[in-house]
Amino acid sequence: MLVVPAEPYEFTFEPESVALVIIDMQRDFVYPGGFGAALGNDTSLLLKAVEPTKRVLEAARKSGIYIVHTREGHRSDLADLWPAKRVRGKLKTTIGDVGPMGRILVRGEHGHDIIDELKPIPGEPVVDKPGKGAFYATDLGEILRARNIRQLIVCGVTTEVCVTTSVREANDRGYDCLVLEDCVASYFPEFQDYALRMIKAQGGIFGWVSSSAKVLPVIEKIHLKAP
Ligand code: TIU
Question: Which helix or strand (DSSP H or E) is residue 152 part of?
Answer without folding.
Answer: strand 151-157
